[in-house]
Amino acid sequence: MTSSPPLLNSTTPLVRGADSSIGGLLLESGKITPENAERVLRMQKELGIRFGEAAVRLGLITEADIEQVLARQFDYPYLQPGAGKYPQELVAAYQPFSHQVETLRAVRSQLMLRWFARGSKSLVVLGMEPGDGASLFAANLAVVFSQLGEHTLLVDANLRAPRQHEIFDLKTRQGLSDVLAGRAELDIIAKVESFVALSVLAAGTLPPNPQELLSRSSFVTLNKQLESRYDVVLYDVPAYATGSDALAVAARAGGVLLVARKNKTPMAEVAAMTEQMTHSGAQVVGSVMVDF
User: Fold this and answer.
1) What are phi and psi of 191, to 5 degrees?
2) How far apart are CA 219 and CA 189, in angstroms?
3) Whole-structure pTM over 0.70, yes or no?
4) pLDDT tens across 171-185, in order?
5) Per residue, what are the HEC states of the chain?
6) CA-CA distance, 238 to 203, in Å (whole number)?
7) Helices 245-253 and 218-229: crossing angle, nearest 10°?
8) pLDDT tens track for 196-229
9) Rounded distance between C-alpha atoms, residue 164 and residue 185, angstroms
């Protein structure tokens, strides 16, 4: 008994060879139509060039489209400018090949070697003064860790003036404070749609006693739970100058990355903070200087 081969939809061209996944992703994302794909295939065959190059020559897509498709192919997600719902200052999401993001990746590499590769999983990102850009830096650092394939959780532990729910456009009203108070479970952690390996735990209800809440023993248990679920746990905390909240979180996380502002952060304050962190049982793993 013989059987006929399955019929192919006549409007869907076959994209074969090394560029098949590129063509398939371009079709899937709606960058090209099946009819245009046939034109690309003809040019590809005639000139002996890559599928993406042929599509660019025909004016059907741009080099930026190719970069984005390649990023998807290699599980390195990022967004086109104007796409998504995040602020443009989230440069790791929108400008992954910029000098700023190259610097972020260099910081990530150093942290992997100096901290996370040694068995640690949690890290506090701390600014010296409000407005030093530590929250935005923490958000971008979380994105580049997720782009590495590390299952990353960004925790907004700033229970005074939180920002991560705004940066990542989170709608949930509950967060860290509610978990610590026993009024919510970890299922309130939000996965960031655009980055499959990134999740965010918002600050939640702003409490009247943030320092006391962060100093509870339940935070030790919570941190252990988070470390068992994620490869990297980053904590965004209030600036060091605003109080002792950062010390309470750092004592649980064990490590601190200092964000200093160029021509603004006094070295004497950095030295005093480092000494106080050491006394609290936390290690200052490194520091970065931002300029804006």
Assistant:
1) -85, 135
2) 16
3) yes
4) 888 999 999 999 999
5) CCCCCCCCCCCCCCCCCCCHHHHHHHHHCCCCCHHHHHHHHHHHHHHCCCHHHHHHHCCCCCHHHHHHHHHHHCCCCCCCCCCCCCCCCCHHHHCCCCHHHHHHHHHHHHHHHHCHHHCCCEEEEEECCCCCCHHHHHHHHHHHHHHCCCCEEEEECCCCCCCHHHHCCCCCCCCHHHHHCCCCCHHHCEECCCCCCEEEECCCCCCCCHHHHHCCCHHHHHHHHHHHHCCEEEEECCCHHHCCHHHHHHHHHCEEEEEEECCCCCHHHHHHHHHHHHHCCCEEEEEEEECC
6) 11
7) 50
8) 799 999 999 999 999 999 999 999 999 999 999 9
9) 19
Residue 199 makes CB contacts below 8 A (sequence gap 6+) with 151, 152, 153, 154, 189, 190, 191, 192, 230
Joined together, the tokens standing for residue 232 give 């990297």
* Nearest to 161, CA basis, from 125, 135, 185, 180: 135
Token code pair at residue 286: 């490194």
Please report, for residues 19, 90, 148, 150, 287, the alpha-carbon distance to residue 78 in angstroms, rounded to integers and kept in the order given: 21, 10, 12, 15, 26
CA 131, CA 142: separation in Å to the nearest integer? 19
